[in-house]
Amino acid sequence: MSETTRECCALCGRRKKLQTAGNRKLCATCRAIAGYVKNHPEEIKKVWCELYDEPILPRANSHPIKDEGELPDVLDGKRYRTVDRENNKWYLSISEVEGSPVEVFASTAFDRDNELQSRISNLTTITRLISLMLRHIFLGERLTLEKCLKQIKRSSRQRDDLPDMLYGVLSRYASGKENQ
Predict the structure, then answer these.
(1) Mean pLDDT of the chain
(2) Which of 2, 19, 39, 155 is deepest in the core (most CB within 10 A)?
């Protein structure tokens, strides 16, 4: 057992009798909590997820990418058919690497319908950005503003649609003109 002092606890900050636990001086209450955390990590992870709706620590990348290049031309995947509240049929394709989703595509049977063109360009923007995030999460691909801009620009179907306007505004940040 280590020496007892009367200082501030490293965790709660209260002035109490402290004992050294590891490399910190902790009060009895905080020592008990630290011991529980150390001895029951799975319980701590569960509680953390319940409270914050996210993992306590990001998972290590199980399939890190070797470079910042493009994904292979052909990926395994699954295709799903769904129907929206207006009874339009949509096709969702999920591309996978080792069972993890890395790209999402959505299309509709009504691509020639002019009323849907705006919705489709917005949908394309969303799915491209989600795909970028999935590659970051599951493959460890680095996210940059330039990569986001590239995907937003590719989503635009006509001048002054939402992706085109987003690209115009956000590209100012990439070039350092955000204050203009």
Answers:
(1) 78
(2) 155
